[in-house]
Design a protein that fits this description.
The protein is mainly α. It is 43% helix and 10% strand. It has a 3-stranded parallel β-sheet with strand order 1-2-3, covered by helices on one side. Strand 2, helix 4 and strand 3 form a beta-alpha-beta unit. Helix 1 packs across helix 5 and helix 2 runs parallel beside helix 3. The protein is globular. The termini are far apart.
Length: 125
């Protein structure tokens, strides 16, 4: 769904998708099959990942000196207050609940892109 939203909005940034939290950390650390992976400017993180959930990924990111400055937007179906609180306590930069309506989801992805690409100044840019 995120890929479709990026394509629909003609988002200028490239999107890389991994299947689970372990693969996410390998991608970010450029390990295994991901040795040539780029360092992302922004991470859209689902909390409900297999093998290593998004909370564990977020925690690992923010303790890794080489990765902690990458902004992380938690983009998940969970509306649980405990997930919101925990995500921010683990230093997520934003928490967004995925809308179930595709048109609204497209709008949310566009707003995230506009904010982090056009409004915010990120390290290394």
């Amino acid at each position: 769904m995120t890929r479709e939203a990026f394509e629909h909005n003609k988002v200028r940034n490239r999107l890389w998708v991994v299947a689970d939290g372990v693969s996410a950390m390998e991608f970010l650390r450029k390990e295994g099959e991901h040795t040539d992976a780029p360092t992302p400017d922004l991470i859209l993180l689902d909390l409900n990942l297999p093998r290593m959930d998004g909370r564990e990924v977020l925690q690992a990111l923010k303790v890794d000196e080489s990765l902690r400055s990458i902004p992380v937007v938690v983009l998940t179906t969970s509306e649980a207050e405990e997930d919101v609180v925990r995500s921010y306590s683990l230093h997520a930069n934003a928490y967004v609940t995925k809308p179930v309506d595709f048109d609204r989801f497209i709008d949310v992805v566009r707003q995230i892109d506009e904010f982090f690409v056009e409004v915010v100044r990120l390290p290394g840019r």
